[in-house]
Amino acid sequence: MNNTHRLTYLSLLTAISLSLFVLEGLLPVPFLAPGAKLGLANIVTVFALYTLRARDALAVICVRIALASLFGGGPTVFFYSIAGGLLSFAAMYALKKTGRFSLPAVSAAGGFFHHIGQLAAAIIMSGTPGLLTYLAILGPVGLTTGLATGWMVTLICKRLTSFPSFY
After folding, report:
1. CATH fold of 3-160, please?
2. Residue 29, class by beta-carbon neighbours within 10 Å (0-12 exposed, 13-18 middle, 19+ buried)?
3. Is the dihedral of CA 97, 160, 145, 87 positive or negative?
4. Which of 70, 135, 148, 152 qualifies as a FRET site for 17, CA 20 to 30 Å off?
5. Which residue in 159, 40, 45 sits closest to 96, CA to CA?
6. Domain locations in the chain?
7. C-alpha closest to that of 105 among 58, 147, 60
8. DSSP line for 25-88
9. In the chain, at which residue ranges do the beta strands (DSSP E only) sit?
10. Residue 129 and residue 48: Cα distance in Å, rounded?
């Protein structure tokens, strides 16, 4: 893949991820805990992790978080999002690298660690370590949504491998 093709591909993935992020903000999700989301943009994150070099996947995450914060959130949202996104990515990358975990399991771990990162950011900003108790609620939500995301990415990858020029 030449540099222009790579940059175009990364830009498209970032745009899709940002679009899913915006779409998710429009969906009412009454059954999740306050602060929890479906994580639709993470479909692209996990897909990028499994189909691109790690640094390219990380670039997609960081650019999406920066743009999403710029469009509607500001520095506080950026801090929470980047903390969750980077910790999630690090956990998924480490687990994927072992080769011992399925794609859905890696994604589930990413959902869980995303919430740990966000809670760590909240504790730093508020100085309230007791916020970590909220992990009892957010943890299972992150595992569940991460598992669903991983399952979707598995289906997407299976479908795309039927295109000879994709990989």
Report:
1. Arp2/3 complex 21 kDa subunit ARPC3 (1.10.1760)
2. exposed
3. positive
4. 135
5. 45
6. 3-160
7. 147
8. HHS--TTSPTT----TTHHHHHHHHHHS-HHHHHHHHHHHHHHHHHHHTHHHHHHHHHHHHHHH
9. none
10. 33
